[in-house]
Every structure is written in structure tokens, then in C-alpha cells.
Amino acid sequence: MGGGIGFGMLFRLRNLTVSDIPMVDPLLMAAYDRPYxxxxxxxxxxxxxxxxxxxxxxxxxxGGMPAxxxxxxxxxxxxxVGLVATDPAxxxxxxxxxxxxxxLEIAASRACERVFLDASDAGKPLxxxxxFVAEDxxxxxxxxxxxxxxxxxxTTGSRVYPLAEEGPxxxxxxxxxxxxxxxxxxSCWGDNRDRVLAAYISDDPASALVARGxxxxxxxxxxxxxxxxxxxxxxxxxxxxxxxxxxxxxxIAGAVTLNAYIPEANLEAARLFGAExxxxxxxxxxxxxxxxxDTRRRRLVYSQANFALx
Length: 310
Description:
Structural class: alpha+beta
Order of helices and strands: EEHHEEEHEHEEHHEEEHEHEE
Helix content: 25-40%
């Protein structure tokens, strides 16, 4: 496989597997200084892109703690890189650069026209050296437990239906509803990530909501990832639809800590989430390599799925 030298240490790359999760989970928690486990997210990412996740380990050592990792998920002609991390004790030895170069090779082999990632301040210089340019920011917003429920959906002018049920006058099969959401997502997000949405929805259809306008047209959707305590992906064509979705999701979630990843370009999202008690805890730089998508799409994304799926 690939190799790289840093301060006399040689590293090799291999595919990350499900069996590696117990070892790389502590690495991610240490690298990102976060108290929660990444295991559930990693399992989903590996299911979506089994060949796209890479571990770096000291050459000659097998089965031990990886020195670093990272991955890419390809959605249409777009690749999204995420969870690039290095063991804090082995930083500045070229591990992240080695992993990133392999991920970009994967993107090229899959004919990706662009690659996105969300960079921390520490990682940004590396990505700039690889040719990535800043396109937007993305904030990590957190809502601490509150006793009150969400806003009454009936007052917003849009109607929201749980994906697992048929709403009044919505005599459609679940497959048709999924098609509506995927079609809306392609117009808002900018490329085809149907399989990502299908994976989330198949896990828990009752946690997926769709907002419809007066003619029954899909105006937005939101997915509540209960296990990850995360609201997203969530997109909407207008603030009224986003407002009704947010209120209903918060009512379903109840008094729990909830996370959201909001594009800085979406000022309406910041206003709506802030009004509901979310606070921004940190910010990352949304970066791109390759041809752009319409940057206006970021204004329609109210919360990303995560930092590896956009």
C-alpha cells in the first residue's frame, strides 16, 4: 500500500473495517476533543462507502492502534471527506497528508468533479496546500435540554407529515414520499445523495418529516438522528417550511441535548435555531477542491447530515 516518512517513521495505509471501530473511536475522541463516541457514525459511513475509509499505521505493526484515519463518501459526482484525524502523539509527521492524498486518489478513481470537507483551524493549512479553497463556514450548534415542546406547527402556514405515515390527502406509497424527498434534496444540496437519505430513513422512518405546501408539494424535510442526538440532514425551500419542521422535530426529540451543523451562508437557519435555544459552540471552514456547485444551495441547507456527508 502507500507509505510516507515523518521523523524517521514509516506509515502504511489500509482499508478501515468495522473491526477497527473500537480502536479508532478513542483516536477520534482525542483528536477532536469530544466526549461522545463516533462508533455509530462510523458504522453508517463504512456501510455507505466500504472502500472509502482509510487507516494509517506504523509500518511493520498490524492490529495495533492506528496512527490516523479519514474517509470519503461519493455522492453523484461529489466526494465528501470527513473524520480525518491523527493520534495526538504522532501529529506533524505527515500522517494526515498521507491519508488525504489517498482519499483524493479514490475521488479521482470515482470520477468526482469536486471534493468537499469541513476543516478545523488546525487542519485548514494542510487542505490549502492540497488545493482546497474556502467556500463557506459551518457552525456546530447545540441545544441543551429544555422542558417546553416545539413551536405549534399549525401556526406556520405549512403542514408537516411523519414520513412513516400518510397525511391527509397524501395517499402515496412510502416509496413515492422517499422520491419526493430525494428530488427535493438534489435541488437543494446540489448532487445525488439518495442512498444516504435512504439509509437514514430506513433506520427510523418515524424520525423523518416532510413539509408540504398548499398544493401538496414537498417544501422541505428533516431527519432526526436519535442515536447521535443530531438534527439533520434538513433542507427547506423557505423559512416558513423550515420553521414548522424545526418545531415538530423539537417536539419529537423532547428534553434532550440536540446538535445541528448549520452553514454560515444560511442566515435564516441561524435565526430560527437561535430562537429555539440553540447556541453555536464552534465553527469550521467549508472547503472545496474542483468545480463548484451553485453556492446559493448553502442557503437552503438548514443542518448538515454530519461533517462527512454534508
